[in-house]
Amino acid sequence: MLNIDKVEKVYIACGYKDLRKSIDGLVMIVQNSLKLNLFEKALFVFCNKQMDKIKILNVDEATKELISKGELMENKLIKKMIN
């Protein structure tokens, strides 16, 4: 589960990405296209072409987690991130 207190950076991928990709597909984008360290304390944010959906990739030493916009709203994580 995402612990927002441990996040140090948020990367927003420029342009749109195919949100049909699985966790592993987005991991490949972070590593190969963006050339970023997947295991730093960061969130990686992707949006679709219409810019009405987002997915957030959270990776730590033990887990990979993919969060969609709907899950963010349900869990009220956006409010935690803003405050």
Automatic annotation (TrEMBL):
It holds the Pfam family TnpB_IS66. It comes from the Bacteria. This is IS66 family insertion sequence element accessory protein TnpB. It comes from Clostridium gallinarum.
